């Protein structure tokens, strides 16, 4: 594996971690907004979260399969960490 390829993978994973952390952190806010009956704000946030995620994944896909898969791995790692952290806090 060349240094350039390894760097591209690392950048995509880190970007996925950041994207996933933001996406799933805002999911918590989204739930509180829906629960607080502030559904117009919640709906806008919901659509913005998905639009940003889809755009980032599209950019990664245009860079190639490996950056897309690497970013997806980062997103899934962030999701796992945040779900576990939320589960520990709720117990």
Number of helices: 3
Helix percent reads over 70%
Number of strands: 0
The largest sheet is:
none
Quaternary structure of the protein? single chain
What is the domain total for the residues?
1
Quick take:
The chain has 91 residues and is mainly α. The protein has helices at 3-35, 39-63, 65-90.
What can you see in these coordinates?
By secondary structure, this protein is mainly α. The protein has one domain (3-90). Helices cover 92% and strands 0% of the residues. The chain has three helices and no strands. The chain has helices at 3-35, 39-63, 65-90. Helix 2 packs antiparallel against helix 3 (65-90). The radius of gyration is 15 Å and the shape is elongated. The relative contact order is 0.20. The model has no long low-confidence stretch (mean pLDDT 92).
Features:
91 residues; mainly alpha; 3 helices; 0% strand
Please outline the helices and strands.
Elements (H helix, E strand, L loop, with lengths): L2 H33 L3 H25 L1 H26 L1
Helix pairs in contact: 1-2, 1-3, 2-3
């Amino acid at each position: 594996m060349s240094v350039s390829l390894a760097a591209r993978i690392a950048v995509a994973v880190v970007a996925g971690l950041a994207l996933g952390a933001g996406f799933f952190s805002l999911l918590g806010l989204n739930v509180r907004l829906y629960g607080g009956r502030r559904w117009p704000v919640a709906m806008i946030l919901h659509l913005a979260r998905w639009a940003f995620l889809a755009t980032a994944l599209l950019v990664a896909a245009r860079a190639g399969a490996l950056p897309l898969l690497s970013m997806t791995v980062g997103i899934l790692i962030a999701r796992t960490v945040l779900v576990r952290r939320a589960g520990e806090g709720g117990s």
